[in-house]
Amino acid sequence: MKDTFTVTKADIVKAVYERVGLSKAESASLVDDLFEIIRKSLENGEDVKLSGFGHFVLRNKKERIGRNPKTGVEIMITPRRVVTFRASPIMKNRMNGIRD
Amino acid sequence: MTKSELIAKISDDNSGLTRKESEVLVNTVLDSIVDTLAQGKGVELRGFGSFTIRDRHARTGRNPKLGTSVDVGAKVVPHFKPGKALRERVLLT
To answer: Half-sphere exposure of residue A55, counting CA atoms within 13 Å on the CB side?
Structure first.
């Protein structure tokens, strides 16, 4: 691993390969599939709720005036839909060394 | 979509994969993200997004019901930033 502070898809594929008992290629393709299904659901306007992990929630943002912080030039930011993530209490506890 | 729907969809899409294997797959992926964050490291998934942890300082909170002060200790919270592909795909209103 090049950067010890960041884990990438390759590391996750490795964990799947070691635990699920599939080939590396199959594991990689399934991990891609998993994230694509989540993206597709969000793209179709449906929130993704993964119990014990967290919820990916869509939010609609209204049009607003933004500013380029460097130049100070104001621009209109178009209305848009964005993804937010709400971590589950289980996940939040694990971040702070609490196991249930 | 719920976790069980995600598990079902993956095994439906991949004929060689049983429901049980799909469940192990999904749990392994989610657990490895949580484990990584719990170790103080970040997870970057190209085209999807990145999970990082953020420090929260200790603060004095308030019990909204009683109005009494409570000390809230310093903690870390998980944070997700959607990747470019995900942002662009959900953008349309």
So the answer is: 10
Domain hosting A95: range is 47-100
CA distance linking residue A37 with residue A16, whole number of Å? 17
A85 touches chain B (CB under 8 A): yes
Task: Tell me: do A57 and A30 sit in the same domain.
Answer: no
For B33-82, what is each residue's pLDDT tens digit? 999 999 999 999 999 999 999 999 999 999 999 989 999 889 999 999 99
CATH number reported for the structural domain that contains residue B48 in this entry: 4.10.520.10
What number is the ipTM of this complex? 0.90
The alpha carbon of residue B19 is apart from the nearest alpha carbon of chain A, in Å, by: 12
The dihedrals phi and psi of B74, each to the nearest 5 degrees, come to -65, 145
- Say if residue A52 is in the same domain as residue A35: no
Verify whether the Cβ–Cβ distance B30 to A50 is below 8 Å: yes
pLDDT > 90: what percent of chain A? 75
The model's pTM: 0.89
